[in-house]
Each structure stands twice: as C-alpha cells, then as structure tokens.
Amino acid sequence: MSTVIITGAGSGIGLAVATKLAALEYNVVVNDYDADAAERAAKEVGGIGMQGDVSNEADVARMVARCTEAFGAPTHLVNNAGHVHQSRFVDLAPEDFDRMIAVHLRGTYLCTRSVLPQMLKNKAGCVVNMASQLGQIGGIELVHYSAAKAGIIGMTKALAREVSTQGVRVNAVAPGPINTPLVRALSDDWRAAKAAELPLGHFGEPEDVAETVAFLCSEAARIYVGQTLSPNSGDVML
C-alpha cells in the first residue's frame, strides 16, 4: 500500500491533496505548522496528523520517523508547505525574505533529503514539489515568493536528473492563483488584478490541483520526470 507525507496539509491545496489520496487508499500523514489544523485534517481524511515546521531539521526527522513507525517508509512525498507575504521589493526586510526561502526551498530540501535514502534503497518512490506559476513569470510585490518557487522548479529538474535512473520520480506542480486561505491573505487589489489577467477569468480550486498531484503520484505518470505541470487558468502557457 502506498504511503504519502503531505506537508502544509491542514487547509487549502494540501488538504485537498490529502483528501484525494486518502480516497485512493493511500496511507496519509498530514503535516502542518498549526497543530490543530494538522489534527483536524488527519481526522477528516483518516490519517495521522503531525505538527512541524518543515524548515526545522528536527521537526522533519520526527515527522518521517512517525510515518515509518505507523505505516513503513513513505513511498510518496508531496512538498506542499507554503508561506505568503506581500511587499514591494524596496520595503522587503531580510527576515521576511529568509522566512520565505526557509519554508519553501529549505523545507522542500529537508523533507526530500529525509525520505530519499529509503526510496533509493527500494528503487522506487515519487516526490511532487509544489511550485507556482509565479516561479515562471514572477509576481509584483511577491519577489521573494517568486524566487523561492523558481528555486523549487530548478531543484525538481536537477534532482530528477540525479535519481530517476534509480527508480525515484521527481516532478513539480505550478498552480496559478487558487482559492485558498494563502491566496485570500493577499490584498483585494492584487487578487482583482490577477483575475483580470487570466484567460479563464477566475481562480482555480484546490481540488483542481489535487487532481494533478494525484496523477503525478500514479503509475499513469510513470514517464513523467522533472516536469512542471501547470493548472493555472491560462496564466502561463508553455
């Protein structure tokens, strides 16, 4: 049976992914920075909830150990934990830049590093990294967020080249604006301007992204390596 760790899964896209994969009979470990959110989501999907900061090495080790104790080594990892902060670049404080990189880029690195040795030993595994279309095109007042997500796309490609021949598939998803608490935390003006730019004229839903993640986790995606799939309402067309 497949076992997945999903970070940042207490709400939004992460919760939708957890719900989808649980319905597909994965063992699910739900991580969130908010302990109550993690427990609520885990109860909702029939999994295990684990509070933890993905940028903290000890928290990540504890999460993977708990998963292994309950279900065996994870066969799948969805690096979804996110953080948003809006600022013009000239006003961007170093601590806000550092936190953005820590959650998105360092968190993806730490979580993947923690599960990868066992996947390589088993010659099988799947990692899905949550990027963003802003990592491809950039976003006003979101330079630090865009930089972190671009880094995830680059990490995905490079790691896929390293480990794909050893049975581990690594891919990314780059959603456009999605109706989540994270996006709703941005200003009304930002969200209105972004919606007006979209060919579809509206944001996506968390379930739209969950379907993409579920595909990449499945055997149907067995030849997808180092790819970035983009459920983005037409914001980026590649």
TrEMBL record:
PROSITE patterns, per the entry: ADH_SHORT
InterPro entries (alphabetical): NAD(P)-bd_dom_sf, Sc_DH/Rdtase_CS, SDR, SDR_fam
Assigned EC number: 1.1.1.100
Keyword Oxidoreductase in record: yes
SUPFAM superfamilies according to UniProt: NAD(P)-binding Rossmann-fold domains (SSF51735)
Keyword Mitochondrion: no
Lineage: superkingdom: Bacteria
Keywords: Oxidoreductase
GO MF entries: 3-oxoacyl-[acyl-carrier-protein] reductase (NADPH) activity
PANTHER family found in the cross-reference section: 3-OXOACYL-(ACYL-CARRIER-PROTEIN) REDUCTASE, 3-OXOACYL-[ACYL-CARRIER-PROTEIN] REDUCTASE FABG
Family recorded in the similarity comment: Belongs to the short-chain dehydrogenases/reductases (SDR) family.
The name this protein goes by in its record: 3-oxoacyl-[acyl-carrier-protein] reductase FabG
Organism encoding this protein: Sulfitobacter dubius
Lineage: Bacteria, Pseudomonadati, Pseudomonadota, Alphaproteobacteria, Rhodobacterales
